[in-house]
Amino acid sequence: MTTTLHVCTTCRAGEVLEEDAPRPGAQLHAALTQADAPKGVKIVAVECLSACSQGAAVALSEPGKWTYVYGRLTAADTPDILAGAAAYAASGDGLVPWRERPVIFRKQSLARIPPMETNS
Amino acid sequence: MTTTLHVCTTCRAGEVLEEDAPRPGAQLHAALTQADAPKGVKIVAVECLSACSQGAAVALSEPGKWTYVYGRLTAADTPDILAGAAAYAASGDGLVPWRERPVIFRKQSLARIPPMETNS
Fold first, then answer.
1. Beta bridge partners of B112
2. Using one digit for the tens of pLDDT, what is the confidence trace for A28-74?
3. Are the CB atoms for B80 and B102 separated by under 8 Å?
4. How far is the alpha carbon of A7 from chain B, nearest alpha carbon, in Å?
5. Residue A83 is inside which H or E element, if any?
6. Nearest Cβ partner of B67 from A46, A62, A67?
7. What number is the ipTM of this complex?
8. pTM summary value
């Protein structure tokens, strides 16, 4: 299985921007894809994670694991986001021990969702 | 497939509560389970959806569909939450047309996450 790191590319992060101005979400996506993705992590752009007031936002998901959504991120958080994604990918259930989470993952969680029940 | 409506039962909804005081999340869960669940919707209690500052919170998920997380909910929102869950369950991909969403689902989305890629 592969971990997916969804990155909202349309996010304005609460800023009032000119129509053609670079969006904070797109800038975060560009920074993440320019870095080396951790093993087992696929970075996928998505238009709107519906966390507009708390953006820029990303989501970590993988079948069978808890899903996490993080917000108030910028391109400067790229190394921490990728480190957190690597720890998530290496975990069995998506629950990374607290001390092993980057600080932004401890403090900027917007939501988490239990694994899907696929046998129902 | 069954839609799961996860309800955070530990949520204090930002309130300072006595240790044994009823939690807003537990009150919301009780109200939801006392009502009739819509067809195809299973209500599941969960300890912490990590949306603590925006609680009480619920999440709607189903394999193959977008996942949605909603916040700032109370037991008074029970009819609207169940109506929104029914519309979600009836949808093919979790994307319910805007006008058919309860107002709380239009205005109190905390996040949405694309369907999992299960074939990767």
1. B68
2. 999 999 998 999 999 999 999 999 889 899 999 999 999 999 999 99
3. yes
4. 10
5. helix A78-90
6. A67
7. 0.91
8. 0.93
